[in-house]
Amino acid sequence: MAIINLKINSKEYSIDVDPQMPLLWAIRDFVGLKGTKYGCGIAQCGACTVHLNGQPVRSCSLPVAAVANKNITTIEGLSDDNSHPVQKAWIEEQVPQCGYCQSGQIMAAAALLSKNASPNDADIDAAMQGHICRCGTYPRIKRAIKKASENKP
Amino acid sequence: MVSRRQFIKNTGKASFALWLGATSNGFANAAFITYAPSNFTPFVKIEKNGKITIFNTKPEMGQGTFQSVPALIAEELEVSLDAITIVQTSGEKQFGGGQAAGGSSSIRGNYDAYRKIGAAAKEMLIKAASVKWGIGIESCYAENGSVHSKLSKEHLSYGDLIEEASKLEVPKEPKLKNKSDFKIIGKSIQRPDVPLKVSGKAEYGIDVEVPNMVYATVFRSPVIGGTLKSFDADATLKIPGVIKVVEAKTTVGKYQYSGVAVIAKSYWSALQGRKVLKVEWETNGYENFNLSDYENKLRNLSKETGVLDKNIGNVESVKTEPGNSVESFYETPMVAHHTLEPMNCIAHVNGEMLTIWTSTQVPSAITGSGPNDLHSQIGMKPENITLHSKFIGGGFGRRLYTDYVIEAVNIAKQIEQPVKVIWSREDTTQHSAVRPMTFSQLKGGFSKEGELISFQHKVISPSYFDSVGPNFDKTKVDAIMIEGIGEQAYQIPNIKTSYVYADFHVPVAAWRSVTSSTVAFAHECFIDELAHKVKKDPLDFRLQMLDKDSDTKRVLLKLKEVSNWDKPLPKGKGRGVAQWEFFAGLCAHVVEVSVTKDNTIKIDKVYAVIDLGEVVNPDNVKNQIEGSIVMALTAAIKTGITIENGKIKQSNFHDNPMIRMHETPEIEVHILADGGKIKGVGEPGLPPFAPALANAIFSITGKRIKKMPFDLKLS
Ligand code: FES
Ligand code: FES
Fold it and tell me: What is the pTM of this model?
């Protein structure tokens, strides 16, 4: 066990955990933010995606000690009122079904658009390939990403 | 576990029946007097301040019932969806036994019943206003949460009327609105759960936290059917955070299993404890079970006559000339549900009392007092069970089983605190009931004139009913396993369908669209073979066998039009068609394919037509069909579940892959909602997809695909 300091959505948290524990469980069970999901635990599904210094990462496969004091953003930090362009587009396109994968999908899409303001189909496929939506909302996710890129100032 | 039959029956007219029952014994009126706020019926609550709550009894798992069920009530009650609060029910007694989602039944089974609930409440409010104003009810109308007078500018909000309305008799046969007056039904209104799912605020079972809660992971027998011999927890108990190691029993249909639960302060600690846990299993001979042997057994069983299902005309008496008949054999694999939210459940046993927090398709089966409901599996009184039913991160039939709930309760009985049991992805893949494989033997015979005069379909498979209950009668047909095959609308003078039971020790489950997701593949590919035999266009061949007023014919005609079927495709492209009607509904697809430079099939486009009779939210239906096609594509071309040395070989998404965005074809969905029988949404999009794809591939390669999964890479 060790004290780890985390910076999540610009707030600081100090938790006493196994340094090898994945960031995912720190976020969910120690910090208490439940928007980030567990789907596979082996970097295959993307449900656990958060931003680490702006980059999308799989929190299920990152030991918590490795991200101490770094800037982490979760779905809760994207906006507190669904006002992020990606969230708005997700609502306009009515993307979710069960919704379980969507936090991860949205975090990946937000990271993509911050690097590439107008991605084409191939860019979107490449950025989103690591994400599984068992409900099969891919056509809508793609449409929503395009919409968000158009809506951006 | 409720049997599928039972829950389909329960989800039929049960909700309305309950409401009527409540009326005749005065429940609704009594509720007005006893409680404030008051209930018109258990499904609608209107408070004096005007707040309107509609209770949704159909768990939301992505299919859209969180909106579609309240929408039916709100439409007739004359309130907008923005003006209501929706509360998900959790198996509470007053909402009856129909609190379950499955079989695509929520809307098709309750379309009028839910509307009558809203209409009855509205009639009572109108009556109350008319009495207040001293005018006739014909001079009043309801709009936007108020009753208005046609004679003056006067209006009263529902909240101001409930006291008077509550003293009135609840009308038994309230008048329903004309379709042309609908403001909600048939409109693509944004769903209320979407903002929650976009912000991360939607709470799934796995997200619930209760005070003082601990976590558990369960080590289960890697060999299916293995039993627990002993365990040594010494090393486990030394892991920081580990609290206790206990036996964890559960029930899946007729099967009983034991695992070992590691209970800890955090899930991570529990997992660390499980890594060093020593368990000995008795494998009971099942360690020698290999799927490939079992599949050979199924092939051999196809020689048996089996049990007769449908017998139209007399297939045996039909004499076909040599060369005028076709025979074929099709095989499908086992598949996993892979709900993205793994199984999980929180249980808290406090003396006689039990509280459960979980995502389930069957709240009624958890709190119910029926003989197969949860109480009977855990030895507790149904009235002592409280459920908190959460958003479901995928159901697909997996969460019709309550094995993960029973297991959590059995663990919770051995510790004071509430315990959250989380199944890892690997646990979920390797210890969940699977969709069984079905093998199909088909025969068709033509007259000299080239008319299809005989058709036989024999299904060889394990039995669903044998898996869910102890008393399956092997001399009878398992209706689930031959689902839909005897009910196709094709007019063929001699039809015989039959079933051959195969003994199996692995629990099997309903998987979205149940057996239709497998037998439709065999059936509709074979229809294509028959069309090819007599050199007919596969879509015209089907149309010619359909009665002019059959729903199937309407669907195929629409599909023909929207897919431009009659327009020849450019060279190098092909297309295939398939349809399927079964208990859940009716849908048909045309799939267009081409071959890429590296000799791989590319799916260029999928056209889908679904017939619903009536549609609540067209955009949501489209979402469902798009998703159904993606799911059906996974089942068609990705590895299924296999068993080697008694163990499920696949464990996670690296070896049991799912379709991803870059593999998803373009999809165009058309909805028929022109009246007629009301049909379901959640499942019908799956069965016709794999056969339409396989038929499309045949059209371009000339090779018949007779086994799922199949490779898009051509050899
Ligand atoms: S849970 Fe991390 S990628 Fe699946
Ligand atoms: S919406 Fe269900 S997994 Fe994506």
Answer: 0.95
